[in-house]
Every structure is written in structure tokens, then in C-alpha cells.
Amino acid sequence: MENLRFRALGRGVAVVLGLGLTGCGDSGDGTGTAGSTSAGTVSASTGTSATTEPTTTVPTSGNSVSGTTSDSGTVSESAGMTTTGVSTGPDTTASTGQASATTGGVTVGDTSTGGDASTGGSTGVMPPCEPGDTMGMGDVEKSYLWVANTDQGSVSKVNTMTLIEEARYRTGPQGGTESPSRTAVSLDGRFVIVNNRGTGSSAVIAANLDDCKDKNNNGMIETSKNKNDLMAWQADECLMWSVQHPFKGDIGSGPRGVTWTPGTFDKDACVFKDPKIWVGFLPVANATAHMVRLDGMTGAVEETVVINNWVQGDTFWGPYGAALDKDKNVWFTGLRGELFRINTINNPATFDRWSPPPATQSYGMTVDPDGDPWHGGCSGPVTTFNPMTQVFTAIAGTQACHRGLAADHNGNVWVASNGPCGLVQIDHKTNTLIKFHNLNPCSIPVGVSVDLEGYVWLVDEAGWAWKIDPLNVPAMKKVDIVGDHYTYSDMTGGQLKSVILPQ
Prior knowledge:
Radius of gyration: 20 Å
Helix content: under 10%
CATH architecture: 7 Propeller
CATH topology: Methylamine Dehydrogenase, Chain H
Distance between the termini: 20 Å
Number of strands: 34
Number of domains: 1
Strand order of the largest sheet: 1-3-12-10-9-8
Strand content: 35-45%
Shape: globular
Low-confidence stretches: 1-127, 132-140
């Protein structure tokens, strides 16, 4: 089984890994209409239902605020998984994952890898492996960009190597009212979570056919096979589960900040098992935010961290962005307020909070491989935080309207800029501006993510994305993706891999 590796860029750093993979201000986050919710319940694709009581969390470290847990969620499952597509490398045209058939379903087990549906690995004896070797992805090299189609209530799966949109999935039953925005990819690339701001729900979709579930037991997997094949809600058998969060009922309080944790590495199976997801939203209680830990495979709520005194300059917006660090702590931000760290090693989890300089905003946020959080604000500079010195540093020359941002393995931080319109490149070792890159066309650049090969992806809200080689930025490639894409987060899984896998 071949290893997948980051392309050696800049300083030649290579990382072993496997992957399945409207203007500034509040108006840019206001698309969609709040849907009705059922607090504490979960609606999902067909399958058995599971309910767990969350853990009460009382933060104790630093200047954190204590909180309690009061919400649980009912979850219904629907999927298992692996993959059948083939990709031969960057910028080549190959068979593009998902089904080999052009109509109808795909026969379960009809995969190119002959994989075990429970692990996505070989049915034979697994060779010794370390994290990053195969990650349960079989012998197929693949990498996906997951783009939320905010106006449609769907998410697109784009092959980053072939540049083909292989599938499109609904994220909820209410179409554009769902208003999906943030996406996050599991460490092994097998699953993506999509947060619906408008209805307060989250949905998890399997990237590979062998993880999808034959819910109607007809021996086939009914699932989307191309960008125009958008199936009815719950009809797509690659929908794993969805969960309804007990949120306040408006688009500001819906779930946004989200990240996976890797789970436990099973060396015999060569896969990560029992991954978790952290999601943030505003519950019904005023001036309170919730960060909840979900079981990645079922959506069951396992723990709720309650953040009291949630002011953030504007109580309308909940936790806005989230990312994991190399110690598996979860960092998250408010839009116009504090920076938080959930200390996941503690049971129950605790959190710390810091107040950044007044000019700091956090439209976009990430954590670089060194463990430093970054913020991209829409009315101020790009800012980074050093957890060791507890000092915030504003990057000179970056006073603009920024959105999403991502860090690569070669010391770069890439930031979407709305005004002026383009892409900002920063040296995260020296905290200095390298260059501002123009884009043509350029409308509203929103999301930035780095794929498994080290290519930078920038998603424009107006209906396209750019694939960018850091060694040759002007030669960027435009990839059309129909829809309005108010999406920024770890859309490829690259952030998670950059802080977890060995470098």
C-alpha cells in the first residue's frame, strides 16, 4: 500500500499522510433564514437512534469561567465506508472516485481496493504501519476539497488532483434555509462534517463508498455521482448522521467553529478509531456559548463545555472558528472577542480565555504546525498568538478585510483578503508579510485550506475556487463550483494533519 506524502515545497519538508479527502461585516454572514428547531433532538438519515447524557464541565484553569452542561442530543446513524475511485496524482485526469456506474446504485463491496468495509483497508494481513502510512484509505491516492454551497443547502466534494466535482450532498432537509458554512475533515479523510447556521444542525458525510451504508438493503449504495446528482435529503446513503443542536433559533447562534480530533490509532488495523468532533454554537441561555464534543461516528453528545459571560463584542454570534493544536487542544474564537483553548487532556475538559487587542477580529482562524493560533479580521490586521509568551502580534502591512486563513508546512500562512481583493502570504516564522497576490477574477475570497500535497485552495463566494502552487502562485488554476460559498474552515483536512502527523 503506497504512502501519501505532502509534496516537498520550499524548504523540502515532506509529511507522510493519507487523505480521502458578501462583503465585510455581519452582512457577509447573514445569508439564509433561521429554521425551526427541536431543542436537544437529532434528526438524521434512517438508522438506529442513540442518546447520551453529556458530561458536566467546570473549567478551572487560567482566567476561565465555570459552566455546566444541560443539553443532550438524540442521534441517528446511517453509514459505514471505503472508496472505489482512482486518482493518479496532481493535475491529472483519472477515474474520479465514487461509483463506476453512471446510473443507478453501486454494488456494495465492488471496490478497487478489495477493502474491508469496516476499516477501508485490505482484506489480507495488514503490514506494520505508523500513523500517516495508509490511514485506512486502501491503496488509492485521493484528496478532497469540501465546499459548502450556502444558497443550496449542500456541500460539494471536489477531487483536488483531478479538479473534478465528484459529488454533491444535501446537508439538511430545508434547502438554502440550512445555510451551511463551516466544514471539517477527519484526520484519515474518510468523513466530513458540515455545519448549518440557519437551522442549528450538523451533518456528517462519508467520502468513500465502503463507509456508506446500504440502508434499504438492496445490495447497492445510492449516492451522488456528479455535481448535478443532488439526491433528496436522507436518500443519499453516504449521509452518516445529522444532529440538531439546541440553539437560539437565529443564524447568528447556529453552529460554526468545528474541528475533529484524531481518535486512537489502531496499529493492527492501520486506522484511527473513535474520532471526536468539537462544535460551537449559542444555546437558548443568554450570554452563554457551548462547545460540545460529539462521537464522530454517531453524533452522540459526549461532553458540553459551557462558556459563561459570552460577550464577544456582540452576543448575536456564537463560536466562530475552531482548530486543533499539536497537543490536541481545541482553540476557538468569537467573532469580535476572546480567544479560547479547551484543554482536552483534562476530564472534564477545562478552558482558558484571552482578550486580544481591540482591533483584533476573528472572521477566520487556524492553528499553525508550531501551535500558534492565527486570526483574520475584516477591519484590522492579521494577528497571531504565542501560547508560550501569551503575546498577540499584529502582522505589519495587513490592515484590510480578511476572511479565512491556513498555514502550510513551509512556514507560510495564507489569508483570503476581501479589500483589497486577493491572497495574502505571511511568513509565520518571522511574522512578516511576504507578498500580496492578485486574483483574476476576484469577487469575495472567503475560505483557504491546504491539501495533502501542499497546494493552497482559495474558495471565492461567487462560485469558484483557486488551486495554487506555493512555488508558482501566478500559475494558479480556476475551478468552477456552482453556488454561493460562504465557507471557510479546514475544508481539506490539511490543518488537522499538519498538527498531528509527524513532519
